[in-house]
């Protein structure tokens, strides 16, 4: 019987708060200390968990936190280093700030603490070197249950461990395309596209998949495309599985669940792919009363013998010749399910091995084969500060990773908070010559070390 894992959480937004509150419903974990740059938010995470205020106390630093923990208090702080006062088995980074995540990772490494990286921004740029550094010290650095990239890596591992060939894998966008046939509209969150006279392209695809898909995408063009965070998750999943993005901008196919295997298979089997082994994102198309994908993850698979393939085709949606079948997980529950990963990491297990525990699975080592990069969505003036994933500044791509050079694209989350060195015109790929390098950045230092030490091919 394992003892309960001691966990610390840094970053108490929606995700981190869910981890903190869920501890009282999960036997194997305890979160005695949480940190956030806004101490009130850290306190609120414990209040949301139902703890009375008298059991919660603020600590300004590690020494104060250690003293309070000895009294049995649940401690909140705005000093990230103070969380080590709890001597955690595992640290959960939910900051979403790439530079902060780099510093947190190295602090955990220095203290001998396993790390679950919910803050995926740094992971997308320096995940390979961080995994290497943690492994060299016998520690775990891992993505999480609840985050789509962690769940997708896990699902791919399970499919391969089960002897299946992964033709395609991916995630569904959180927002779904909801077709109101009576109103002649398709809704995505608060955005609406009028499809009057174009409803035929929304009906089940028939005939040429590529042609039908192009017509459907044209009808839905007024709706917003994927965000930078979507690309970030898929790049990490590609680096962790050896799969390749379908194209730099991603296909982002608007599909019914029943159409996915018919589209994401090879052309000789009626689909759009030149070859198998790709990763992409679907936008779930459904009517108001239809079942959706819930922001879940999927694999399109094939068994290498006819008998097993017939079983697959009988169990789930498949393409016309039954050579490709869809398997999917119709939800991702963010911090509600992340305690599962924290418990595994505290025991020295990779968080993405949950579905294959005890099974043999050949997976390529994690490599920085792909980077998330930016193009200018509008003109960006010299001196302007680069934003993160949200806002009107960027469009996003996934490209093969390159070493630093004036004309090489800067990994997207290495831009955040830095300044444009010169004017960048709309549509330009943002490269190192466009960026004023930061004076003191662990993220940039780690990237330089990664390019020297880690095989990206």
Automatic annotation (TrEMBL):
The residue ranges of the Oxidoreductase DRL-like catalytic domain are 146-338
Q: InterPro entries per the record?
A: DRL_cat, NAD(P)-bd_dom_sf
Read off the Pfam families from this record.
Answer: DRL_cat
Locate the transmembrane regions by residue number: none
Q: What is this protein called?
A: Oxidoreductase DRL-like catalytic domain-containing protein
């Amino acid at each position: 019987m394992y003892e309960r894992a001691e966990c610390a959480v840094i970053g108490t937004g929606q995700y981190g708060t869910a981890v903190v509150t869920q501890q009282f419903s999960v036997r194997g974990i305890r979160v005695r200390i949480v940190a956030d740059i806004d101490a009130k938010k850290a306190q609120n995470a414990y209040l949301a968990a139902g703890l009375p205020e008298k059991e919660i106390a603020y600590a300004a630093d590690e020494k104060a936190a250690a003293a309070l923990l000895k009294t049995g208090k649940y401690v909140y702080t705005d000093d990230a280093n103070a969380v080590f006062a709890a001597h955690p088995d595992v640290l959960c980074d939910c900051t979403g700030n790439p530079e902060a995540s780099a510093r947190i990772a190295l602090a955990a490494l220095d203290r001998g603490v396993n790390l679950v990286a919910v803050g995926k921004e740094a992971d997308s740029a320096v995940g390979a070197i961080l995994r290497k550094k943690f492994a060299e010290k016998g520690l775990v650095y891992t993505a999480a249950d609840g985050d789509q990239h962690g769940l997708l890596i896990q699902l791919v591992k399970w499919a391969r461990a089960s002897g299946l060939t992964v033709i395609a894998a991916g995630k569904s966008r959180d927002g779904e395309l909801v077709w109101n046939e009576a109103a002649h509209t398709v809704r995505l969150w608060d955005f609406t596209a009028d499809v009057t006279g174009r409803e035929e392209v929304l009906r089940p695809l028939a005939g040429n998949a590529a042609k039908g898909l192009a017509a459907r995408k044209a009808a839905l063009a007024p709706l917003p495309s994927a965000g930078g965070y979507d690309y970030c998750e898929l790049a990490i999943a590609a680096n962790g599985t050896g799969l390749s993005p379908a194209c730099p901008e991603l296909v982002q196919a608007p599909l019914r669940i029943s159409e996915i295997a018919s589209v994401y298979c090879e052309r000789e089997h009626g689909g759009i792919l030149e070859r198998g082994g790709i990763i992409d994102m679907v936008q779930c198309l459904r009517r108001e009363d239809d079942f959706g994908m819930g922001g879940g993850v999927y694999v399109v698979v094939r068994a290498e013998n006819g008998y097993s393939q017939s079983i697959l085709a009988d169990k789930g949606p498949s393409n016309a010749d039954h050579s490709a079948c869809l398997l999917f997980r119709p939800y991702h529950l963010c911090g509600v399910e992340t305690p599962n990963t924290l418990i595994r990491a505290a025991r020295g297990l990779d968080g993405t091995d949950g579905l294959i525990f005890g099974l043999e699975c050949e997976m390529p080592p994690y490599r920085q084969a792909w980077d998330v990069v930016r193009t200018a969505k509008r003109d960006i003036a010299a001196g302007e500060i680069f934003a993160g994933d949200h806002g009107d500044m960027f469009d996003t791509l996934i490209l093969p990773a390159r070493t630093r050079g004036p004309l090489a694209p800067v990994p997207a989350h290495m831009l955040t908070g830095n300044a444009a060195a010169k004017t960048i015109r709309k549509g330009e790929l943002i490269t190192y010559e466009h960026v004023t390098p930061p004076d003191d950045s662990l993220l940039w230092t780690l990237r330089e070390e990664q390019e020297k030490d880690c095989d990206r091919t």
